[in-house]
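Worked example 2:
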Amino acid sequence: MPFRSTFDCLWCGTSHTCRGPDDLEGWAQLCPVCIGKAGDNGFLRFRLRQALAERGEASRRATPSDGSPEAAGSATVPSPPTASSAIPAAVDPERSLVEYYEARAREYDDWYLRRGRYARGAIHDAAWAAELDAAGRWLDGLPLRGEIVELAAGTGWWSPLLAGKGELWVYDAAARPLELARERLMAHRLRAHLHLRDAWEEPDRAVDAVFTGFWLSHVRRDRLEAFLGLVRRWIRPGGTFAFIDSLPDPASGAADHPAPVDDLAVRRLDDGRTFTITKVYRTPGELAAALREAGFIDVEVSQTGRFFVLGVATRV
């Protein structure tokens, strides 16, 4: 993990602010109390060992090979380019999507937590936090059980809620987000099966429920019917498909992200790299109609307010 000067402890959730860039707490993202418990806890020991290695590697990278005494962090960092609303002429958004989330993994949760470029001011951020909590309570209240598949799980923000309901299988096409999902589940002392698997890969069995978080908006308009058909093949008769996705509020994304154009969006990372990905905003009515056309019943699609759309349906 990258160093963070201020963070919420991965284990106990306590907020902590580091005194300096060498503080081990900032590399481990564990508070001092939890670091002190590392001798008795496997996850904490793992995080501590990893933090020591990452801090050492960062120190080596910051030290010039000629041995000159430049301080860590003193190298000049070029200013990142400003994101442009122009979409490159030749781009494969589906391939770019996997590359984007692989590269974005370490900063992905900044979006959920409204940190850095995703902080949009007290009023917007308070509304976001309230709606994110409402989405979590909605998901937690769904009667999901048995074998559950989470497709395109990313860093596993929703995985702990799902893992408490049944036997969870967590899939994503990118490896680095899955590593963070594994750490999140370990921090909650929950178990799941985590595997690399593209969301478009054909099912290898039938399960009781499928969940996707912020994935349907990455499905092109001309492929939504095909994807919902694939979801239907995943689910046993009487099973459930549930999803949470995005509404097109200007304060949802980073402050320097331009609005999508023709269902394509330019996304910039903290290091300045840019990616062009598919981003399709659909209304609750559009999603409900698509689910019914795909053969689902008991369709319920709603929205939390400004930011999120929530959907659940039953496979016939």
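The two ends are 43 Å apart (CA to CA). The CA atoms of residues 118 and 254 lie 4 Å apart.
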